[in-house]
Amino acid sequence: MKPLNMRKNSSPGFLFSFCGLDGCGKTTMLTRLLNDLKGDREVFLTKQPTNAVRTSEIFRNYMDYPNHESYDYRSLSLLAASDRLQHGSKVIEPQLQMGKVVLCDRYFYSCLANLLARGFPKDRWIYEIAESVVKPDVAFFFDVPVEMAVKRVRSRPDEKDRYIDMKLQYRLREAYIDIAKQNGGVIISTERSEDECYKIVKKEVERVMKHEH
Ligand SMILES: Nc1ncnc2c1ncn2[C@@H]1O[C@H](COP(=O)(O)OP(=O)(O)OP(=O)(O)O)[C@@H](O)[C@H]1O
Ligand SMILES: [Mg+2]
Fold it and tell me: Is residue 26 lining ligand 1, measured as CB closer than 6 Å?
């Protein structure tokens, strides 16, 4: 795997992305950061993919059922990549240009992680699309053993019976780590306490925000 050649953020705002397995702690960390920053800076909280993709038939098929024979995964991957491109340039970038701090729950990296984990390591188009996407000032990757992530997901009352492809989760975990290493991401193990993890998040954010763009 080669690094993604994303565009440098040259806007006055800052972009922080949060990626990792379902249940790894993205929303927990992002919410703490939001609460911490909001007195001092204007913060814009957002997520990818958008609801347009989340509610699509192909996305729901992959998320909710084990049989995907009617679909080619790259079709969903392209749909998600297109959604991220649109969301990046028409939702995130205007906020960055206004000088806001943008926190994005999942990012373009998740598209690559899923493409790799679903067995398409040779597809090059994802790298070309990435060149049009803004590189986060810090890309956080939260890492946790698959069993722990799944336990956290299953502890949510409305997700206790959710379909989860376990083999895919193992491959995804590896993919996220590789992507983080290749792209200068910050890997944080959320096996530790929330407070310990959040301290690392805060330190990284403060380090980057000391220097205006
Ligand atoms: N160090 C930690 N960091 C973050 N969350 C933790 C940590 N330790 C325990 N947790 C718990 O793990 C759960 C993580 O859930 P959260 O909704 O933040 O995950 P998520 O990555 O956003 O999941 P999803 O992808 O399904 O949206 C929470 O219940 C949180 O309290
Ligand atoms: Mg979440």
Answer: yes
Cα–ligand 1 centroid distance for 21 (angstroms): 10
* Structural class in CATH, domain 14-209: alpha beta
Q: How far apart are CA 97 and CA 84, in angstroms?
A: 18
Ligand 2 centroid, distance to 102 Cα (angstroms): 16
Tens of pLDDT along 144-162? 999 999 999 999 999 999 9
- Among residues 119, 120, 116, the alpha carbon closest in space to that of 183 is found at 116
pTM across the whole model:
0.97
Structure letter (DSSP) for residue 136: P
Query: What's the whole-number mean pLDDT along residues 53-57?
Result: 97
Once rounded to an integer, what is the mean pLDDT over residues 45-51? 98
User: What residue spans define the domains of the chain?
Assistant: 14-209
Please name the residue whose Cα sits nearest to atom 17 of ligand 1. 27
